[in-house]
C-alpha cells in the first residue's frame, strides 16, 4: 500500500505541474516576453479569497486516494493522501462569487502533529488574473491559527511568481473534515 501511495503521489505531482506549466502562448511569444523582462518592474499582487474543502456529502471536492497500513492507528492520520478540486470564493459562504479553483493534493506527513504536505495549484477564473495560476508547495499545520506556505511558481500573469500565502481556518467540522479556509496571497511577478 505504501508503494501505491508513493506512485499516486508522484503521478499526481507530475500531472499537477504539467497543468500549471501549460500556456496558450507560442514559443516565439514566450521568448519575446522573456526578452522584455529586464526592462519590466516586478509587481506585487495581493489576493484574498476562501478555499472550500468538502470531504462529505454526495459531491465531495476532496477524496482519499491512498493510506498507509498504519494510518488508521495514527493520531495524525500519518500516510493519508487526499486529492482535491476545491472552489475558491470571494467570501466564506458557499454561495459567494466563484473566483477560481484550488487543485492538488495533501498528505498527512507529521507523526507527532497533524502537518500536511500541500501541493496545490490556484487557478483563477475571473478578473484580471483570469486564466492565470499560482503553485503552492509546503507544510500546512492545520491546527495552527495562521499557516504560511511558499509560492513556487505561476502561469499567465503570474509567470516566474514567488511569494507566500497565509491560510487561516474560518470553519472546520472535526467530524466530517469539511473546512473553509481564508487565504491571503502575496505574489511577486512580472
UniProtKB/TrEMBL annotation:
It is found in: Secreted, Extracellular space, Apoplast. One of its GO terms (cellular component) is apoplast. The keyword Cytoplasm does not apply. It comes from the Eukaryota. Residues 1-22 form the signal peptide. Keywords: Apoplast, Secreted, Signal. GO terms for biological process: phenylpropanoid biosynthetic process. Belongs to the plant dirigent protein family. Dirigent proteins impart stereoselectivity on the phenoxy radical-coupling reaction, yielding optically active lignans from two molecules of coniferyl alcohol in the biosynthesis of lignans, flavonolignans, and alkaloids and thus plays a central role in plant secondary metabolism. This is Dirigent protein. The lineage of its organism: Eukaryota, Viridiplantae, Streptophyta, Embryophyta, Tracheophyta.
Amino acid at each position: 500500500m505504501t508503494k501505491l501511495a508513493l506512485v499516486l503521489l508522484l503521478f499526481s505531482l507530475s500531472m499537477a505541474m504539467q497543468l500549471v506549466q501549460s500556456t496558450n502562448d507560442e514559443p516565439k511569444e514566450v521568448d519575446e516576453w522573456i526578452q522584455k523582462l529586464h526592462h519590466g518592474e516586478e509587481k506585487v499582487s495581493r489576493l484574498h479569497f476562501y478555499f472550500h474543502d468538502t470531504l462529505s456529502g454526495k459531491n465531495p471536492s476532496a477524496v482519499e486516494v491512498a493510506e498507509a497500513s498504519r494510518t488508521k492507528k495514527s493520531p495524525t492520520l500519518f500516510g493519508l493522501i487526499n486529492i482535491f478540486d476545491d472552489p475558491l470564493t470571494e467570501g466564506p459562504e458557499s454561495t459567494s462569487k466563484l473566483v477560481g479553483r484550488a487543485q492538488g493534493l495533501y498528505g498527512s506527513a507529521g507523526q507527532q502533529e497533524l502537518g500536511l504536505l500541500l501541493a496545490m495549484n490556484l487557478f483563477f477564473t475571473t478578473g484580471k488574473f483570469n486564466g492565470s495560476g499560482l503553485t503552492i508547495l509546503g507544510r500546512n499545520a492545520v491546527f495552527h491559527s495562521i499557516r504560511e506556505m511558499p509560492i513556487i511558481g505561476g502561469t499567465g500573469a503570474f509567470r516566474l511568481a514567488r511569494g507566500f500565502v497565509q491560510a487561516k481556518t474560518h470553519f472546520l467540522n472535526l467530524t466530517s473534515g469539511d473546512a473553509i479556509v481564508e487565504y491571503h496571497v502575496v505574489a511577486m511577478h512580472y
